[in-house]
Amino acid sequence: MQTYNIGFSGPSEPIFDAIMEREETVGFLKILEGIKIIRCTTDIPVDVLLAIPGVSFVEEDELIDHEAFADDWHVRRLAVPFLPIPPSKPVANQGLGATVFVIDAPLSQEFLESEEMSEADITLSALYARGVPQTSTHGEIVTSLIASKSVGVSPKATIVSVPLAINTTISQFDILEALDSVLLDPMRPPVSVVLCAW
Fold first, then answer.
1. Which pTM does this prediction carry?
2. Angle ∠(145,105,103) on CA atoms, nearest 5
3. In the chain, which end has fewer C-beta atoms inside a 10 angstrom radius, N or C?
4. Which helix (H) or strand (E) is 35 found in, with range?
5. Is the pLDDT of residue 90 over 60?
C-alpha cells in the first residue's frame, strides 16, 4: 500500500465514498477540510484516484528531513553592508493587535513561566494539542524573538503555539495538518501572521 495526499475541490463526502467503495485495500484515511486534502493509505492506483470527480491532484506523502529546510539566508543577510539598522529598539505599536501563529516545536511550561516571557500573551489552544514531542527548543527561540522582554520585536502581539515536531523526520501531511488547524481555528482573526521558521 502507498500513502497519498489527495487534493480536492467541493465537498469531501463524494470523494471519501468513492474511495471507500473500491475493492482495493484502503487503510488510514484522514480529511483536512480547510486546505482540501485527503490523506489515504491504499492499493488504489493513482490514475483511478485521479479519475474520481472533484480530485485535483494525487501525490505521494513523502517524508521530509529537517535538514532539507537548512539555508544560509542569515549568513547572506548579515553580509549585506548597508542595512537600515536603527540605533535603538523601535517602539511603534510593538505588535499590539497582531496574532502570530507559531508553527514550530512545542513550548515548555518552564519557558512560558520564565521572566523573559512573563508579560507575553501566549495561547496554548486545545485545538493544537496533538501530543507533539518536544524534540527541539527552536519554537521557544522563535517565540522569544517575537515576544520576549529583551529581544522581542513584537512583545505585545498575541502568540498562538501550533506544535510541530522539529529536528526529526515528519511527513508532508504533518505540516499540512498544522496549517489546516490554523485555517479552521474559529478564533483566528481576519488578519494574522503564520510563522513557519523551520
1. 0.65
2. 75
3. N
4. none
5. no
Element (H, E) at 42: strand 37-42
Share of the chain above pLDDT 70, in %: 82
Helix (H, G, I), strand (E, B) or coil at 67: helix
CA dist 128 and 188 (Å) reads 13
Nearest to 117 by CA among 161, 167, 152, 79: 152
- Residue in 197, 177, 167 with CA at minimum distance from that of residue 159: 197
83 or 33: which carries more pLDDT confidence? 33
pLDDT at site 71: 47
List Cβ neighbours of 18 (8 Å cut-off, separation of 6 or more).
Answer: 52, 53
Q: What is the mean pLDDT of residues 103-131?
A: 82
d(CA 20, CA 44): 10
The cell 488578519 sits on which residue? 191
Average pLDDT of the segment spanning 18-47: 88
Amino acid, single-letter form, for residue 66: H
Helix runs in the chain, H state only: 13-20, 46-50, 73-79, 109-112, 138-147, 172-183
Amino acid at 108: S
Name the residue with cell 540605533. 87
Residue 131 region by backbone torsions, left for phi larger than 0, else alpha for psi between -120 and 50, else beta: left
